[in-house]
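Quick check before the chapter quiz. The format below is the same one you will see on the exam, so make sure you can read both the input and the output lines.
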Amino acid sequence: MPKSRYYKILGLPITASEVDVRKKYRLLAMKYHPDKNPTDSAQARFIEITEAYEILTGKRPFKSDVSINLKTEQQDKEERVKAAQQRYKEQLYREHLENERYYQSLISGRRWKTVKLTAFCGALLSLFLLLDYVLPHHVEQDEVTHYKRNVTAQSGIGSIGLVKTRKENFYWLSGINYTLYGEVRKVYVETSWIFHNPIALHAQSKLGYHHYKVRFNFYSLSWLLIILFLIPLFTVWYKRREVSFTFFYMVSYYGVNALMLLYLLTGNRWAHTLTLGFI
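Here is the expected output.
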């Protein structure tokens, strides 16, 4: 009996890897296991796929000739069903042990300590982001030195331009007009209290007061940052033997950590955080 026949039994090409064989066997075994499908045809199918799985994974030696079976067909069938069931239970138990070892590796060691530290820092940053909405804002004087109108556009907002100030700061502003770059160069920059995130530029001309909202900044993304920074805290609380926990764990360890470092290291936010916005 050619070995390719066993690939055909599992519905796989002969080029399939051992990993593919294991995955396909698991799916078929769940469908034809006697506990879930007690029909005679399902039992026969379960024996067939189990034999194919064991031969293709090397758990049973492959024989090209058919040995003579002295037992009756019914006895042979019953014994093969029991043996297949036992091997299936052993496979599930091995997979359970592997999953348990992997879960224990996630909730112990250096990486788990890092996730818990990230959860604390993320909760603290989220609190500061919320306070930035309610605390009074800073207002600093600056002067526009360069400008460029209509650099890009955003739906519902219109054209957006870019200005540079004497303090080497760049701001994306909507609604730039002649007042800002031709009539009045001195502006007042409104920033949040703790992180000093720019919110708007204000200018006073002879004709009145002008307000220019800053676009493409972290302040406008504060609610999204709060949600992302709270993912590690949710992960520490969730801690279950589920695939979703592994997903949140990886997002916290690799994604949120990187985002927090980026946020704190740009714009001297680490210094603003340590001084609670006073510096």
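If your answer matched, good. The chain has three domains: 4-105, 109-130+223-274, 135-221.
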